[in-house]
């Protein structure tokens, strides 16, 4: 027999979650006209900063291990415009040695480069032993923007789809560790980030005419991405999808996954004592008046008025 409702809510013993969850309907994702419930669980800043620092310490360990073992690492970052690729790359490289880990972000090919073998302009940027190279956009431009915007012919596109898997298998056989990330963002979140860039003068440069056109051709880019995955998601170099509607979660997830791809060891040098500095009694510093010193523009900051 069903119990009669009393109208009072029973106290819950469940612990409050550490992060706030936001669930909303996103239109036009996946199938055209479909409504998909998307849960966006934010990470509190305090937890995010703590985890980021911890992961960055691990990245330094990985850097030293890659250098010691003479490994060659290539990481490709692709995805929707405003999906957060640049922010993730920035957090990866923030505490690393730029001589070991560098970012490659090529611009529009020159007229000469357009006549080269397609992969030729990327090959000089591949790593030597003990190096990590992060490609902010890569040779997959041909499968995405060039395909959708008509910057390549149909034959050039078809040749890319045939040759790209073989090119990447060749890289892997040569000893390169190749990791590919695709940052996925909903159309609604992308729209919000575009609007944010328009209103923020420090971010407005991030919006190019190509970005605005990609907004109009969302479905075309989706189809191009699906075709790209079908041809290039190979065993030797699979695609890893990063759900990026929540930037901070995407950054942490991507960095943690990147670290998991290596059986690295902690080769951080042991702490050491600084040797005493040699006192040079014969050395006299030149007077400051003879130098072009930068003015202290903020000398009065913090002073009580």
Task: Describe this protein's structure.
With 305 residues, the chain is of the alpha/beta class. The protein has a domain at 43-108 and 118-260: Rossmann fold (3-Layer(aba) Sandwich), CATH 3.40.50. Helices cover 37% and strands 15% of the residues. It contains 9 helices and 7 strands; from the N terminus they run ββαβαβαβααβαααβα. The protein has helices at 45-69, 85-93, 111-114, 145-149, 154-173, 187-199, 209-216, 218-232, 247-260; strands at residues 21-27, 35-41, 72-79, 101-104, 131-136, 176-184, 239-243. A 5-stranded parallel sheet has the order 4-5-3-6-7, with helices on both faces. It has a two-stranded antiparallel ribbon with strand order 1-2. A hairpin with a 7-residue loop joins β1 (21-27) and β2. α1 (45-69) packs parallel to α9 and α2 (85-93) crosses α9 (247-260). Residues 1-38 have low confidence and may be disordered.
Labels describing this entry:
7 strands, globular, 5-stranded parallel beta sheet, alpha/beta
Percentage of residues in strands: 15-25%
CATH class value of the domain at 43-108 and 118-260:
Alpha Beta
Helix segment tally: 9
Report strand order across the widest sheet.
4-5-3-6-7
Helix content: 25-40%
Topology:
Elements: E1 21-27, E2 35-41, H1 45-69, E3 72-79, H2 85-93, E4 101-104, H3 111-114, E5 131-136, H4 145-149, H5 154-173, E6 176-184, H6 187-199, H7 209-216, H8 218-232, E7 239-243, H9 247-260
Parallel strand pairs: 3-5, 3-6, 4-5, 6-7
Antiparallel strand pairs: 1-2
Helix pairs in contact: 1-9, 2-9
